[in-house]
Amino acid sequence: MSKVEQQLEDLKATITSELPSDISVSDVKYEGPELVVYTRDPKKFAQNGDLIRKLASQLRKRITVRPDPDVLSRPDRARKDILEVIPDEAGVTDLDFHVDTGEVVIEAEKPGMVIGKHGSTLRQITQEVGWTPEVVRTPPIESSTVSNVRNFLKQEREDRRDILEKVGRQIHREEMSNEEWVRITTLGCCREVGRASFILATPETRILIDCGDKPGSEDVPYLQVEEALGAGASTIDAVVLTHAHLDHSALVPLLFKYGYDGPIYTTEPSRDLMGLLQLDYLDVAAKEGRVPPYESEMVREAIKHTIPLEYGDVTDIAPDVKLTFHNAGHILGSSVSHFHIGDGLYNVAFSGDIHYEDTRLFNGAVNDFPRVETLVLESTYGGRNDYQTDQADSEERLKEVINETYDKGGKVVIPAFAVGRSQEMMLVIEEAMRNGDIPTMPVHLDGMIWEATAIHTTYPEYLRDDLRDRIFHDDENPFLAPQFNHIDGGEDERQDVADGDPAIILSTSGMVTGGPIMSWLEHLGGDPDNTMVFVGYQAQGTLGRRIQTGWDEIPLNGRGNRSKTLSLKMDVETVDGFSGHADRAGLMNFVKTMNPRPEKVLCVHGDESSTQDLSSSLYHEFNIRTFAPKNLETFRFK
């Protein structure tokens, strides 16, 4: 009998001994990081709401209780009983019964009313019908991404259960080494922005943190995967994704092409956004005549292997590693990833991309950890002069630019990332129009912005407290304001907007590296009455950075891929303060307010001067050992 089998037998015996004699346990299995307990008495389990909590605390494991299929009531009868328990105001839109696991997925407009106070309604559902309820939100804005992901995972339930059981056995396998050390290898994003990728290794485990591309790079964007991983991708035990932006997520599916078959840990919204952005990444590559690094099937494999975690949940992801996600304040679902290694041996936190202060969209990044010996810290705005304008001042300046352009009869074009900055802009513009600070006019959303916004409204619990409450309780969803128009009519609609009255256009791509923004440049760039406003980071080598620094002869691909040049006459403005990244002060304060502070900091994800400036300042200010590593360096700790 393997160690895992013995563990499960012991756990079954322990659980049985702790339960009342009238509650049976028919089987115990690992599924990913969770322990699943099967019982013929789900209704009795549900009658005692403390049972599962006490077992989870005693065993120090996340526990799910499922009924044996042969004790379930029929789905048609269960449907009627469940709908009698749930209040009508919850807005149930679908019930989906899965006999193999005894679960019923309840989709509702107001999931909180299905859950009930402290889970009381969920327990009542199980008491009535025996089925284990799982609750998901009905998106307030219809999202093809959310719908496609949910339907795909529904179709792949059997494969996914096999994956989860395999992962669970891997997590709880016997440790193979008596050595104790921790290593971090930098695969990308060192002294550069983009290509975020790291290996966290112990004698037992290799974990890949992020696997992104480099925006604006002329080189093959995935060299770090081929060189550093190659056929060794199958030796990785787990992938952890801090957030869905392509400079962190684009190349995750490539791992499956190289033989990876393990889990991806990220938050639920990051999973959905990852799929959206990766499929668009392939679409853009094809349109530009480039050979994509992987096929869309690999994106589906990545989604199928994803295990979503919630902020604050301490989760075993390897025999010697526990992972906890914390809000990073950067984009929807973005996470600071904290790794607890060994039995108190060492703690490492990867910041991913962070915003330390609250924004209109998100609460500020969390830096409250019991222990962190080494912090891997982004440095995008780590340079000594990288101080952003106060957000209130930035909003005033944006409103001034909009009013000035409106008075000229022109249009404002804002290149924006589909995820994060676009929604921030929508909130600023909606409030400014509602308060009369700028004239009410159409706000056209081009590219993936509308779909990304729909995903934001699906997960309001990840948004800033007051925004979440507006969506939850007040039915005042600002993203549904009537002035927002989704551009879905292609070039004809763009031409109509260009020929029409003053308007605001939010368009991808945020760094002007392709996508519909190129069409808006062609339509509007030659008119000095129009204004382009940069509100996000423009990486070196991108067309956005070149325009921002004064380029006015812009290369465009005409019909038939013939190159032509646009003489840019529209005004170009940069309004700082809207970035999803912490500025220099925010990065310093993130470290300053950590208690205890880390012993070592690796400054990454910034150009060479930014990483070195931040590294030097942290050392002198806080007497911490700091590094500005290069790519393909390895650091050993312990």
Automatic annotation (TrEMBL):
- Residues binding Zn(2+) 2: 247-248, 353, 605
Query: What segment(s) does the record annotate as region Metallo-beta-lactamase C-terminus?
Result: 580-638
Q: Where is the Beta-Casp domain?
A: 422-547
Annotated spans, KHb: 73-140
The record's keywords, sorted A to Z, are: DNA-binding, Endonuclease, Exonuclease, Hydrolase, Metal-binding, Nuclease, RNA-binding, Transcription, Transcription regulation, Transcription termination, Zinc
Q: What is this protein called?
A: Transcription termination factor FttA
Q: Cofactor comment in the record?
A: Binds 2 Zn(2+) ions, which are required for nuclease activity.
Role played:
Terminates transcription on the whole genome. Termination is linked to FttA-mediated RNA cleavage and does not require NTP hydrolysis. Cleaves endonucleolytically at the RNA exit channel of RNA polymerase (RNAP); the 5'-3' exonuclease activity of this protein degrades the nascent RNA released from RNAP.
Protein species of origin: Haladaptatus litoreus
- Short name of any one Pfam family annotated for the protein: Beta-Casp
Q: Taking every annotated instance into account, which residue ranges of this chain make up the domain K Homology?
A: 98-165
